[in-house]
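STRUCTURE REQUEST FORM
Protein name: Oxidoreductase
Source organism: Nonomuraea purpurea
Requested output: structure tokens
Priority: standard
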Amino acid sequence: MNASDPLAVIAQFPGVPEAVDEARQAVDKLYRHRVLRRASPAVSTESSLRGARASAAIEGVDVPLDALRRDEIHDPLVQGALRVSAEIGRLGSTWRNAPRQVLARLHSVAAVGLVPDAALGRPRSGDETVLGRPETEGEAAGPPNLGAAPSAKEAAARMEGLFGLLEQPTKAPALVLAAVVHAELAVLRPFGVADGVVARAAERLTLVEYGLDPKSLVAVEVGHLELPYADGLRAYLSGTPEGVARWVQQCASAVTLGVREATAICEAMQRG
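Status: completed
Returned output:
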């Protein structure tokens, strides 16, 4: 792999250019919707709400959208996903230059009530267990099963590599960078709790700040909920070109499905 621009190499894996182009075209079509001339902030707000609900559902806490609107859900993971969605708009300008600071902030709002306050925003540093949610009857056990997390030392080393990718120029499309950011955070589990929520928020933030979806309209988390999420991440974990390509293609499909969700929001607003 080209050490100077590894993302550009990934962008040329078989099937990736076509998938990325299809997602790009879908986003471009969404941005031409007439409702967005006057209501793009409202569409973004609704997309963020639906994205937060979907992100929590991927972690095993699936709640009705209407209950979220009525503020009836007090589950800490759901509340964390909502806080993360609200925080994205305030962190964009910092993401390119200080990604460590942004991830710490995302975790500090995502994991309230799930870890002691002293652990908020702090990467795991020892042999602490990477936690899921407690198993309860009728509820998934939490984050998708990706096997044992890497050691804190290995996770920290790979996170440094991820920060390097964010800081260096690349010819790769924003979607490829967003897919790698998402996967690395999801599989490394640098914080040990709520990493999936942080990973999906970081993907959305990357799509916004690197130009694919500057108005944060695409409910990409909804797309991930509809796709075989854990299977895609396990493919990425294989480290093979085929596995990594499959994950990037899955992220492109998630964007396309997220566009469909945003378009539905636009159509509902147009009907009044």
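Reviewer notes: The radius of gyration is 18 Å. Residues 6 and 266 are 37 Å apart (CA to CA).
Form closed.
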